[in-house]
Specification:
The protein is mainly α. The chain is 59% helix and 0% strand.
Length: 278
């Protein structure tokens, strides 16, 4: 996946929230009607950014130290400590981190709306677009890439590539897990599984981008592959529990409502990591 290579991550002494962080109201360009629905209230999800909240110096040092120990030992308890330290000190806590990943939540909501637009044989712009794509002479991965680009529009964020890669990978994972996979007719269970795959990928990518340098230093290729695989599996395990707790497909009928609950899932997943760190 394109986001598997880390950067040096953001420094301390700056705002936790980058200036390009996308407003939750900017849903993208997926053409889906928005029915009216009541406002949903979720606690602790930041809707107003506070640029004066400054990240501490050496914000990632505890997380990087624990991650190095995890890669060397394979100890899952140390991995939990690394993820908890990343969330608590490195990113300012689970609630702020959920806000930082608002683009992930928005694109997850776009994906749900996109897939739901094909239910019951609906005929619309998206269904015709997908029909033409499936009739073209392209590979399945190319189809998934084009769907990802359709769902995740360009908004000027450095997280865009991660979102598109995560959508593609989630569709690959969904196809591999379901012998009856049909992109034109995903069931409610399929969509829930897609969200598990997508959010797991996004959380993994976020951590790798910010503190993943440890995977590229001092360890063999085999150690790196093994530890990344184990890390993905642990993140996926926790995400699935939160999706099962929070996702009610018949309740969230607008993209705004879906985005809110996906942010809550991200937040509560990192709350679990923070609890494990204590």
């Amino acid at each position: 996946m394109g986001t598997s290579t880390s950067s040096n991550g953001p420094n301390g002494g700056i705002s936790f929230d980058p200036p390009w962080l996308v407003s939750e109201e900017e849903d993208g360009n997926v053409s889906i009607p928005e029915p009216e629905s009541p406002e949903l209230s979720f606690l602790d999800i930041p809707t107003v950014l506070r640029p004066n909240d400054i990240a501490p110096r050496a914000r990632y040092a505890p997380a990087r130290k624990a991650l190095n120990q995890y890669i060397a030992s394979g100890n899952r308890n140390v991995l939990k400590k690394a993820l908890g330290a990343y969330s608590r000190k490195g990113m300012g806590g689970a609630s702020r981190l959920a806000g930082r990943m608002s683009l992930s939540a928005q694109n997850g909501a776009n994906a749900v709306a996109f897939f739901n637009s094909f239910t019951d044989g609906k005929s619309n712009e998206n269904s015709q677009w997908l029909k033409d794509l499936l009739n073209a002479n392209v590979s399945q991965t190319d189809i998934f890439d084009k769907i990802a680009a359709k769902i995740s529009p360009e908004v000027g964020s450095i997280d865009e590539n991660s979102c598109r890669d995560s959508i593609t990978q989630a569709l690959i994972d969904l196809e591999e897990s379901d012998p009856n996979f049909d992109i034109t007719n995903l069931s409610a269970d399929n969509i829930q599984d897609f969200l598990c795959f997508f959010l797991s990928n996004e959380i993994f990518n976020r951590v790798i981008i910010d503190i993943g340098q440890s995977f590229e230093r001092h360890f063999s290729v085999q150690e790196t592959c093994d530890r990344k695989k184990e890390m993905r599996e642990y993140i996926s395990f926790e995400v699935k529990k939160q999706v099962a707790n929070h996702w009610k497909s018949d309740t969230y009928i607008t993209k705004t409502a879906i985005s809110q609950v996906l942010q809550q899932i991200i937040r509560d997943t990192f709350f679990i990591f923070e609890e494990e760190e204590k």
